[in-house]
Amino acid sequence: MTEYHQIIHHSSKADDWGTPVSILNPVRTVLGQIDLDPASSVEANKLVQARRILTKEDDSLTNFHLWGTSPITAWLNPPGSAKTNVSPTRSMSAAYWWRLMQLREKGLLKHAIFLGFSLSICKTTQGLNVPSVNKFPVCFLRDRIKFIDPRDANKKAPTNDNIMVYVPGTTDRTDKFCEVFEEMGEIRRSR
Fold it and tell me: Which residues are CB-contacts of 1 (< 8 A; sequence separation ≥ 6)?
């Protein structure tokens, strides 16, 4: 597999927009127990309730071995900034997608749900020498997610359109993903 090489097309001014329970409940309905959230914080995990988290301090993009050595169920709401430790001019979202696909390639992913902060993830995950989000079941959310700003609960969330991407691995619950998320937006099954 070649190294990550996608040009940044979109970013957010903040990295740590939290996921509201209104999104996490359907995620848990599809995934069951979340084994790993590789882009999290102690505060965010109060809502996510993953068995294990990796934080900014863990540098999970560079320290990919921390993701695990046995198949896991993962939830990913990647940071929205443009900078990564993999490469300082790359999209964090695309870099986390790339790592998730590497985990899947190694047979270490049961299944996962990936939150696309904006529709640009459909473009920025192309050309990474791994399948893009366009190859998997996607829910184009009808309503923008009202993300949680840990610095200011009254702050308005970013105004990007969001998608949820289901990634089957050793477990395939595509039908359950479609059933649960069709109430939240249009579903496009994998190609």
Answer: 102, 105, 129, 130
